Automatic annotation (TrEMBL):
This is Amidinotransferase. It comes from Leisingera methylohalidivorans DSM 14336. The keyword Transferase applies. One of its GO terms (molecular function) is transferase activity. InterPro entries: Amdntrnsf_FN0238 (IPR014541). Keywords: Transferase. PANTHER family: AMIDINOTRANSFERASE. Gene3D superfamilies: L-arginine/glycine Amidinotransferase, Chain A (3.75.10.10). Transmembrane segments: none annotated. SUPFAM superfamilies: Pentein (SSF55909).
Length: 309
């Protein structure tokens, strides 16, 4: 049941000052302004977050929760963008595009990983922000941990030079393509377009601009043993691609209730051949332009063995 693709533990950051980030509105077409006062919106986001954690833990997923008390980090609920973890004990820390998102990096999270898991090295790319470079983690890259492929949409959140450097360090093959929404706007993060499970992949192939590249991506997914579940643009707008497979009491696919509602019965049946969909209700959090996958920083590290005193 254990899968290299589906981690059994995640880091989540509890957002006490949640709001739509004005610094990311320019290129995140999924972002909308929530209705209500700032206090109401923040309280709704907290309630949604706590319910999501309870649901994940109830399904057998180990969730490490960190509280964010800063007023300067409105997107802190999306920690998958600033760090990632990898089998063999490797951790990457990433440079962020928006200035206020750079404040989300927390070394207490990295210290928890070192205490509880076998961490061999931490490669910190964040200093490259000073050179105007960004690579926003598993938002910018959708990683196939089995086939060692980093699927990456061209955007200002994924510098090509830095992507090559990451792939060299972490032994991934970069697969880069251009993707746009129905209005012709660039897709800002790859993980709103696609998600890869152990035996299937969710992806909107129509959004890949170049037909040849579109065929290449579908072929690579199938070559690595994935059944391709082709999503529509409308389903992507409802965050159906922004999902993460996890290992709990059984293999599950964590996604939002809105995303699950957008899927057709035949698509759900395809997922259910190898994972049980686990919907989380997060409508307020989704107004920030991200969904369930963005909230989950998967831990692909080996736990340390605990010795009794």
């Amino acid at each position: 049941m254990t899968s290299l693709q589906a981690p059994a533990a995640v880091v989540m950051v509890r957002p006490h000052q949640f709001r739509s980030n004005p610094e990311t509105q320019g290129d995140n077409a999924f972002q909308i302004l929530a209705n209500g006062s700032s206090g109401t919106i923040s309280a709704q986001a907290l309630a949604e977050f706590d319910s999501a954690v309870e649901t994940l833990r109830g399904a057998g997923v180990l969730v490490h929760v960190f509280d964010d008390m800063s007023e300067d980090t409105p997107d802190s609920v999306f920690p998958n963008n600033w760090f990632s973890t990898h089998a063999g004990g490797h951790v990457a820390v990433y440079p962020m595009f928006a200035g206020n998102r750079r404040k989300e990096r927390r070394w207490d999270v990295i210290e928890l990983l070192k205490r509880n898991y076998r961490v061999q090295d931490v490669i910190d790319y964040s200093g490259l922000e000073q050179d105007g470079l960004s690579l926003e983690g598993t938002g910018a890259m959708v990683l196939d941990h089995i086939g060692r492929i980093a699927y990456t949409v061209k955007s200002n959140r994924a510098d090509p030079v830095l992507l090559e450097r990451f792939c060299t360090h972490f032994n991934f093959e970069p697969m880069v393509f251009e993707a746009k929404d129905a209005a012709g706007r660039d897709i800002y993060h790859t993980n709103v377009l696609m998600g890869i499970g152990t035996e299937y992949a969710l992806i909107c192939l129509d959004m890949i601009v170049d037909p040849c590249r579109r065929a290449d991506v579908a072929e690579r997914l199938e070559e690595t043993g994935r059944r391709v579940i082709d999503l529509t643009r409308e389903q992507i707008a409802d965050f159906a691609g922004n999902a993460l497979e996890l290992t709990g009491d059984k293999r599950i696919l964590a996604l939002s209730a809105k995303a699950l509602d957008a899927l057709r019965p035949d698509q759900i049946a395809e997922i259910e051949q190898s994972a049980e969909p686990l919907p989380l209700t997060i409508p307020t959090i989704e107004t920030a332009g991200g969904s369930v996958r963005c909230m989950l920083a998967g831990i692909h590290l080996s736990p340390r063995e605990r010795t009794s005193a």
